[in-house]
Specification:
The protein is mainly α. The chain is about 65% helix and about 5% strand.
């Protein structure tokens, strides 16, 4: 049978042949397992349900400092609480494992207690689609109900205390860190503020925001310079015209006094000077007509000087003594006023030119100053933004810390306190009995199958054909007094002890 493929009929035949063995093992398996459960030491389980209570103030208003997922924080707290430093005092306080305390080390006892403590998260309902962990169970299995309840209560208190202290510690550390960062940021901000103020003091009129003002003032002074230049030119023209008139009046008056012809050299000189003034008002000094007029005036003045040398000094005294006409005195006064106006406008021109030079220098140096000012302003703005951001974060962290101190933030709350178990959680004798029944049935089936695999009997026509590789021609039934009636009612059956095996090659 081990060499050919088995059919369901073969398995049913095996069950019919080995049903006794299977039944015996199945029947004795349950009582044996139940007896074993009676011999095992009982373990009592105490359970606590802890809910994760959300903050009373929404996180949109006060953001928590610790944003780690509750599952990760719970795992971290579990590792810390189940450490030797936390569990060893519990073993000594409640006198756990009194029989084994002198036999094994404390590390072994701590390991046993760690295996007895189980933390199971409460999964959120699928309908709510919540991502946060709603709570967790704390299960403790020990040899006595009282110890299980006490240890479960202690472990639950550790979780609650550890959660509060961890959040408070994280909040305080965050507040202190942000406060130190804020102090450093303030120092840097003060330094940049002082540097910016010193720069403004050193460059009071060339800052970027004053560039347009400087341009406007430069245009104003340029306009003033043009106006002063025009006024100066007008004053010079007026003075030239008055000087010409004065020269003509003096010449006419002197001619009248001396009996000379009015058409004298002085009149020619006055005429040439008038022409020169008109030319200078329109052209520059390098213009040919201006140069010619100046040369003619110089030659005429030389001739006048030569003619005047021939006159007696006494001739002039009576003329001066007689006094000049009022018209000549008025012209002299006008010329004096024009001289003052010209001097004033000349000074005004110089002052305006100096102002224009100052503003031109400011505008020319403005790009370099603007670059330096932008660098200082950019650094100051960056420091200011960093300071404001740190101050905002520090305030938020302080509010979160105050919220944790008032126990208004996220916290663990015991919903079901640790119960006092009435029945042992281990071993479960019913489960042991059912397991023994299933185990006995499995052992019986396995033993029956093993016996069948070791059995070399040929029981069917198929077995004969498979072993001999020859077809069966006929089957001879067992001959006996008790088999006569059976052969009439039942088909022939081959057996290794009572059947005759025939083949075509026999």
């Amino acid at each position: 049978m081990t060499q050919r493929e088995l059919t369901p009929a073969d398995y049913l035949a095996m069950l019919r042949r080995r049903w006794l063995i299977i039944t015996i093992f199945a029947v004795i398996g349950g009582p044996i397992a139940y007896a074993v459960s009676l011999a095992l030491p009982a373990k009592y389980m105490s359970q606590t349900l802890v809910l994760v209570q959300q903050p009373t103030v929404p996180t949109e208003f006060v953001k928590p400092v610790d944003t780690t997922d509750i599952s990760q924080r719970l795992a971290a707290m579990q590792q810390k609480i189940l450490s030797r430093s936390m569990l060893e005092p519990i073993i000594r306080q409640y006198g756990l494992y009194p029989k084994d305390r002198d036999k094994v080390s404390i590390d072994v006892l701590v390991g046993r207690l760690q295996k007895s403590i189980e933390v199971l998260p409460v999964l959120p309902m699928a309908e709510t689609r919540a991502a946060n962990l709603p709570g967790f169970f704390v299960n403790v299995k020990l040899d006595t109900p009282r110890n299980a309840q006490q240890v479960c209560t202690a472990i639950t208190s550790m979780f609650i205390e550890q959660s509060l202290s961890s959040r408070a510690h994280n909040s305080e550390d965050t507040v202190q860190f942000l406060a130190q960062q804020l102090a450093d940021a303030k120092t840097e901000l003060d330094q940049r503020d002082a540097a910016l103020a010193d720069f403004k003091v050193k460059h009071p009129w060339v800052l970027p925001e004053q560039e347009q003002t400087n341009i406007n003032l430069l245009q104003t002074f340029t306009t003033q310079l043009d106006a002063a230049t025009q006024q100066l030119a007008r004053a010079q023209q007026d003075k030239t015209f008055a000087t010409t008139q004065l020269t003509q009046q003096i010449a006419a008056w002197e001619a009248a006094q001396g009996g000379h012809n009015p058409d004298t050299l002085e009149q020619q000189l006055a005429t040439l000077q008038t022409q020169l003034a008109s030319l200078e008002a329109r052209y520059t000094d390098d213009y040919p007509d201006v140069i010619k007029a100046k040369n003619d005036i110089a030659m005429l003045k030389q001739r006048i000087a030569e003619s005047n040398d021939t006159k007696s000094a006494t001739d002039d005294k009576p003329l001066r003594a007689m006094g000049e006409p009022a018209q000549i005195a008025q012209l002299r006064a006008q010329i004096h006023n024009y001289d003052q106006v010209i001097a004033e406008k000349t000074r005004e021109q110089d002052a305006i030119r100096q102002q224009i030079k100052v503003y031109q220098d400011r505008i020319q140096s403005s790009p370099l100053i603007e670059q330096q000012y932008k660098e200082l302003t950019r650094g100051y703005q960056t420091a200011l933004d960093s300071f404001n951001d740190l101050q905002k974060k520090r305030d938020q962290a302080q509010m979160a810390a105050d919220l944790d101190k008032q126990q208004e933030g996220e916290q663990f709350r015991v919903l079901d306190p640790a119960n006092l178990p009435e029945a042992p959680a281990f071993p479960n004798r019913q489960y042991f009995a059912l397991g023994g029944l299933a185990g006995g049935l499995g052992i019986g089936l396995g033993l029956a199958f093993l016996l069948e695999m070791r059995d070399t009997s040929l029981r069917t026509e198929r077995d004969v054909e498979f072993v001999l590789r020859l077809p069966v021609l006929a089957m001879v039934p067992e001959i006996g007094p008790l088999a006569v009636k059976a052969t009439r009612q039942m088909p022939p059956k081959l057996d290794d002890a009572s059947s005759l095996r025939l083949s075509s090659g026999a």
